[in-house]
Amino acid sequence: MATRMWLDETHKGKAIAFEGFATTSDLAIGGTFLKSNYLLPVGFPLNLEMRIDDGESLVARGEIIHAVSPGESHEPGMGIMFTEVDAENRERLLRFFVSERIEEFYRARFLMEFPHLETKLSLKDVALVINLWEDKEGRLTTLHRPDSGKSREHRKSEEVRATEKRKITKR
Question: What is the CATH number of the domain that holds 80?
């Protein structure tokens, strides 16, 4: 997926105007990994616009929480933790993740029990509800209000661990 990154604001007392493009490698509920040979500093905020299913765009604000330099064991790029996602984009994100488990539940259980709801509740609608239900840590809920420093640091370490775990399973 193509991702547009930009910043046009003051950061740490300096005016910054930046725009770039990268490829989304791993999109998750709490963040993403952007494949890129140019790396921005850890802690740098970014606005993101990612193309997802059906030409829809997901718009979010994030922060770079780790970087992988060219030549390291994994493809170069930056791990981004989402820090702000409005309600419409949170919904879009939750609908995006339709796991095999959700699809199996939808077809084998939901539609078997309630066939009349197929025209009213699509697979993506059910995925929205299940993904929100399973977001026990409130990773998405916290994105529309400021994090305390402690919860922000906790989320950062969770996102780094999740990225590391995805790297291991992809090998």
Answer: 2.40.10.220
